[in-house]
Amino acid sequence: RKLIDILRTMPSDQTVSLESSQSKLILKGGKSKFTLQTLPAEDFPLVQEAASFGPVFSIPQKTLKQLLSQVSFAMAVHDIRYYLNGILFVAEGKQLSLVSTDGHRLAFASATLDTDVPNKQEVILPRKTVLEMQRLLSDADGAIDMQFANNQAKFSFDGMEFVTKLVEGKFPDYNRVIPKGHRNNLTLGRQALLSCLQRTAILTSDKFKGVRLNLDPGTLRVASTNAEQEEAVDELDIDYGGDSIEIGFNVTYIIDVLTNMGQDMVRIDLADANSSALITIPENDQFKYVVMPMRI
């Protein structure tokens, strides 16, 4: 960590030299010199690779990075259901699908692979691995190669090989969670809805992030209150002719998905006040987000 911090503060065009001397590392660059304590190389833990991996399949780096950003926010954190603390990767045919859920919401995103996968493969990547992958991946068109084994996954890109253990366990059947056939739907600007929710969220409390949505023909009304008897009310004019619905949500769950969708328009499908909502991108079946309602 100290070495990385030192290199990060050096000028980008600075040439540095490294020299090992007994139990120390000497770094020189320009007029700077650093002497760092080292540890025995034989004590470094080695990861034993799986005996055999499945077939290699590829996708552009920027595509995988986008998929991760579209679902990573819905991962569980320190859940006793350990299989929720990560992202499900499903490779089948020429499609790669990523799914995450914390039990209150579910995010699904998919994209077309560069190569065909002969047999369906499913693995769960740990949360820590997902966060590290997001940090390492670039927005370049260069391909990233993936291979899965029983207990490991391997990613190869930019001259680097990244091997990780997998999360054991059975991921929930996400297809059963994604609602179908909700009769009430509306399409509106993502940024307009996001700004409305961000304003309304200001008067929610840290412990209770609930907001109330009142949906009527032509109008979406968003409201929140807190323990100090303060109230926020905001309205949006919308193109909607369905049922009148009053429904509550954790505002953070909606803000998260709107922040990470990266599209101009958003579609919301609802059945009633007690059913989950489906948030998608209009005319695009490669992204789906399900969020459970809450009592307000």
Note the topology.
Layout: H1 2-9, E1 17-21, E2 24-29, E3 32-37, E4 57-60, H2 61-71, E5 86-101, E6 105-126, H3 127-136, E7 143-148, E8 152-157, E9 160-165, H4 174-177, E10 184-189, H5 190-201, E11 210-216, E12 219-225, E13 231-237, E14 245-250, H6 251-261, E15 265-270, E16 277-281, E17 284-291
Antiparallel strand pairs: 1-2, 2-3, 4-7, 5-6, 6-17, 7-8, 8-9, 10-15, 11-12, 11-14, 12-13, 15-16, 16-17
Entry keywords:
296 residues, alpha+beta, DNA Polymerase III, Chain A, domain 2, 3 domains, six-stranded antiparallel β-sheet, four-stranded antiparallel β-sheet, 6 helices, 19% helix
List segments where confidence is low: pLDDT < 50 over at least 5 consecutive residues.
none
Number of strands: 17
- CATH architecture descriptor name of the largest domain: Roll
CA gyration radius, whole angstroms: 24 Å
CATH fold-type name of the largest domain: DNA Polymerase III, Chain A, domain 2
- Give the class from helix and strand content and strand pairing: alpha+beta
- State the CATH superfamily name of the largest domain: DNA Polymerase III, subunit A, domain 2
Task: Supply the number of helical segments.
Answer: 6
Describe, in plain words, how this protein is organized in 3D.
The structure is a single chain. By secondary structure, this protein is α+β, with helices and mostly antiparallel strands. It has 3 domains: 2-43, no CATH class; 57-176, DNA Polymerase III, Chain A, domain 2; 180-291, Roll (DNA Polymerase III, Chain A, domain 2), CATH 3.10.150.10. 19% of the residues lie in helices and 44% in strands. It is built from 6 helices and 17 strands. It has helices at 2-9, 61-71, 127-136, 174-177, 190-201, 251-261; strands spanning 17-21, 24-29, 32-37, 57-60, 86-101, 105-126, 143-148, 152-157, 160-165, 184-189, 210-216, 219-225, 231-237, 245-250, 265-270, 277-281, 284-291. The protein has a 6-stranded antiparallel β-sheet with strand order 5-6-17-16-15-10. A 4-stranded antiparallel β-sheet has the order 4-7-8-9. Strand 7 and strand 8 (152-157) form a beta hairpin. It is globular and about 75 Å long. The relative contact order is 0.13. The mean pLDDT is 93.
